[in-house]
Amino acid sequence: MPVWLFMFVFVAVLGLTGIVVRFLAYGELDPYHVLFSLFFSLNLLASYWEICLYYRRDYIEERVGFWRERQQEQRTSPAWLFLKQRVTLRGVFSPSFWADVWSSYSLYDGSYADRRTFGFTCDIANGFITPLPSLLLYATFTIPFVPAVVAGAIGAMLFWQWLYVTSGYWASFFIAKRHRELGFWEAFAHVHLANSLWILFPLLGLYVSVRLILDGNYGVLGV
């Protein structure tokens, strides 16, 4: 199937699993829980890509030229060219296949083909550090099994980290003047829109986490 469809199916299946379990347990849906189930699922997928970024960093640097040539030949977005590629069952588990996420994106932000940059390092950190707390919060937001104060404290740390690091990356993108190399809509679609998810959801997550700590229960999540 095309990469874009695989991404949609992965996030939908994992996110809906938590949503359905929650509905079967409590007989209702909570909008915050629905949003975080989908966001945590998306971050788990992104985390795998970021782990591939670390283990295939040499390959990524080599592939930038390939995607630049394809961009010139096809006269279209390299990110879209990657998303239209078909991923096989074998490719789903291939770090080299997913490394092309970064080599194609490097045409918008060269940080991901340069291991000396903040963008490169902060995404690797996200890939290795956030999957475990994401899974824990995904599970306890669905069926509470740890005290609300504990879940709130973990959430506050996790969501603040996302907010802080993404804001720092965004600032570095402008400070390095990489936006001048892109058109407005190109920068919006491929840089700002994607990164805004790791700003907006963490802001909402901080609110929910603070409520969990102050209330001492999961009432903010409808439990």
How would a crystallographer describe the biggest sheet?
none
Number of strands: 0
Number of helices: 10
Q: Structural class, from helix and strand content?
A: mainly alpha
Return residue spans where pLDDT drops below 50 for at least 5 consecutive residues: none
* Radius of gyration of CA atoms, rounded to a whole number: 19 Å
How many discrete structural domains? Answer: 1
Labels describing this entry:
223 residues; mainly alpha
Record the SSE blueprint.
Layout: H1 3-26, H2 31-55, H3 57-74, H4 78-84, H5 89-92, H6 95-105, H7 118-129, H8 131-142, H9 148-175, H10 184-215
Helix pairs in contact: 1-2, 2-6, 2-7, 2-8, 2-10, 3-6, 7-9, 8-9, 9-10
What does this structure look like?
There is one protein chain. The chain has helices at 3-26, 31-55, 57-74, 78-84, 89-92, 95-105, 118-129, 131-142, 148-175, 184-215. With 223 residues, the protein is mainly α. It has ten helices and no strands. The protein has one domain. The chain is globular. The mean pLDDT is 88.
In brief:
With 223 residues, this protein is mainly α. Helix content is 78%, strand content 0%. It is built from ten helices and no strands.
